[in-house]
Recover the amino acids of this structure.
């Protein structure tokens, strides 16, 4: 709420700023909202006005061998990549926050570099490395690259959670006879679990949505859902793509709700509530 003592320019700025933010948000959201009604269009083209309502494109997605095969590949790659990203990202975060050593800033920069390096460069580089050793065109190659793309998000979220972590709890566990592994699973991990899960959700979303690296590394047998959508847009724009986009949008909203719940839980743990 605007303070009662605010001057006229401050009041004007208050409303102008919020209207501007609302217009920017609307500009970003409208393209997503526009595609959702088209997924229920009975026409065979992505056009407005719609001639009728139909679920035929959702039926095509769920009963098409091509789409289901792509979905299965995404559900194979993304969970394993997420698991690897969570394990390595959590261990890296704990090591970086607990110990000071020469070159720590450099190591941190290398770990988070996949967030800032263009994905095309990552795709070309990994193809040049993986092709000679036979990992190109394999599930293992895709999983490893997707995990590397997800690690920075796990490192970021877990490191943020560890900023308020009291390591005296670990020392107390050690004084009671717990070995380092037991102290990690019984003390450290439960307290940083919201950050680990949040990073895992980000890593899963990145892997599930990745298309550029997949174009370089995946064979036709490893076609994932985003790659199939990309191929469909290039070859034949079918409203089934709108149905898939709507499903993925709903999935992204659920992920955001889960992240918000985890953020609230992490704050309650920090405050002792």
């Amino acid at each position: 709420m605007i303070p009662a003592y605010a001057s006229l320019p401050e009041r004007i700025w208050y409303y102008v700023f919020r209207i501007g933010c609302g217009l920017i948000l609307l500009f970003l959201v409208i393209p997503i909202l526009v595609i959702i009604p088209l997924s229920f269009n009975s026409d065979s083209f992505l056009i407005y006005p719609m001639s009728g309502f139909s679920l035929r494109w959702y039926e095509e997605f769920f009963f098409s061998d091509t789409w289901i095969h792509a979905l299965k590949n995404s559900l194979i790659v993304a969970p394993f990549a997420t698991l690897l990203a969570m394990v390595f990202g959590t261990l890296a975060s704990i090591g970086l926050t607990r110990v000071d050593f020469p070159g720590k800033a450099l190591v941190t920069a290398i770990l988070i570099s996949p967030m800032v390096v263009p994905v095309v460069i990552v795709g070309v580089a990994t193809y040049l490395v993986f092709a000679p050793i036979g990992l190109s065109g394999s599930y293992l190659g895709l999983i490893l690259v997707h995990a590397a793309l997800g690690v920075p998000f796990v490192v970021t979220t877990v490191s943020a959670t560890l900023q308020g972590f009291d390591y005296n709890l670990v020392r107390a566990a050690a004084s009671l006879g717990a070995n380092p592994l037991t102290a990690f699973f019984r003390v450290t991990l439960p307290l940083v679990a919201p950050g680990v899960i949040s990073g895992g959700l980000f890593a899963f979303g990145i892997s599930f949505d990745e298309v550029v690296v997949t174009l370089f590394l995946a064979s036709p047998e490893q076609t994932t859902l985003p790659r199939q959508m990309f191929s469909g847009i290039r070859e034949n724009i079918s409203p089934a793509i709108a149905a898939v986009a709507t499903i993925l949008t709903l999935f992204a909203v659920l992920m955001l709700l889960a992240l918000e719940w985890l953020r609230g839980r992490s704050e309650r743990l920090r405050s002792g509530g």
